Amino acid sequence: KSAPKAHLDKTNWYYPDYSDSTCYNNDSQPSWQKGYVPLASSLESCCNAFFSPSQFSDCMEKKNALFYPDFLGGYCRNDGAAPKWMAGSYLKSSMVQCCRLLFSENADECEAHS
């Protein structure tokens, strides 16, 4: 008996954003990339695959982005695109902290999606 295939949640995968010279793991991948540009499993592998060695460190700086709530989606993002009005108490250093503090009633679902 073969094992069931795992569902691939692409919201946790990275795609290149050439306008920002970095990679993001949100659901805003441009439509022209979908199906044509492969996704990467980590920020580092995405930066390596899609940017030149001289752009690598700039691409990796995104790694330090803080997590902020996506209230419509019910999860936390760290794509560096938090609205300015969220500066302060909405920004958290970890996904768990963001989910537990800002989505306390649905923290488990938030963590599974983030």
Order of helices and strands: EEHHEEHH
Q: Order of strands in the sheet with the most strands?
A: 1-2
Head-to-tail CA distance between termini: 32 Å
Overall spatial form: globular
Class from helix and strand fractions: alpha+beta
Give the averaged pLDDT, no decimals.
81
Low-confidence stretches: 1-10
Sheet with most strands: 2 strands, antiparallel
* Alpha carbon gyration radius: 15 Å
What is the helix fraction of residues, given as a range? Answer: 10-25%
Number of strands: 4
In DSSP terms, counting alpha (H) and pi (I) runs of 4 or more, how many helices? 4
Strand content: 5-15%
Describe this structure as you would to a colleague.
- There is one protein chain.
- This protein has 114 residues and is of the alpha+beta class.
- Helix content is 25%, strand content 11%.
- The strands form 2 sheets. It has a two-stranded antiparallel ribbon with strand order 1-2. A two-stranded antiparallel sheet has the order 3-4.
- Strand 1 (15-17) and strand 2 form a beta hairpin.
- The chain is globular and about 40 Å long.
- The chain starts with 14 loop residues before the first strand and ends with a helix.
- The relative contact order is 0.15.
- Residues 1-10 have low confidence and may be disordered.
